Amino acid sequence: MKFFFGVFVTLLVIIDPPGTVPLFLGLTRGRSIRARNRLAWQAAVVAFGVIVAFALFGRTILSYLGVGLPALEGAGGLLLLLVSLELLTGKSDEPTSEQRARTNVAFVPLGTPLLAGPGAIVATMLYVQRVHSLANVLALALAILAVMVVVWLAMRFSTVIHRILTDNGVELLTRIAGLLLSAIAVQLVATAVLAFAHQH
């Protein structure tokens, strides 16, 4: 249960469902409610697929490259720190109207990289390294699925959520998510440094 909540909270903080609400509304502006609903579940499915693919094959790629867990934790921590700084400062690149017109927004940029971005992928791969039993495998799978359900609900009811929270509420939740994520990132870097110190 502890492992499940660890994965769930970490991914929830990284993906930041309330923060995706204004982005989703902006990307689907002018579309019908039915089209928005379709894009919401498509984006969640794409993000789930990308994260699961890295969860399954990430370790194989790492072993092929000869990269150990401490190196991944250190790199992951620094990457998450950058993501957290974006959340804290609000400085993240939004796709242009040209990019929106060229692609299905459910795949790019919603599914990836907004939902299944580098932060979520690295965090999932780090948790995969800690899987030591079937219970852990189930907990990891359920946690990823639960996060995607929350994200889908946030996009599905984005108009209602935005009305309730207002711009200020969404901004506040995004900042809190950034603060929590920076703490997780620092912990990862510290763990990696200690692991390297023990190796030598």
Helix content: over 70%
Overall geometry comes to: globular
What fraction of residues sit in β-strands? Answer: under 5%
Total count of domains: 1
Ranges where pLDDT stays below 50 over 5 or more residues in a row are none
Main beta sheet strand tally, sense and closure: none
Q: Tally of extended strands?
A: 0
Number of helices: 9
Give, in order, the helices and strands. HHHHHHHHH
Going by helix content, strand content and strand pairing, the class is mainly alpha
Mean pLDDT: 88
Calculate Rg over CA atoms.
17 Å
> What is the first-to-last residue Cα distance?
34 Å
Q: What do these coordinates show?
A:
The protein starts with a helix and ends with a helix. It contains nine helices and no strands. The protein is mostly helical and 200 residues long. The protein has one domain (2-199). Helix 2 (17-27) crosses helix 8, helix 4 runs antiparallel to helix 7 and helix 4 runs antiparallel to helix 9 (158-199).
Task: Give a short overview.
With about 200 residues, this protein is an all-alpha fold.
Task: Please supply descriptive tags for the structure shown above.
single chain, mainly alpha, 9 helices, about 0% strand
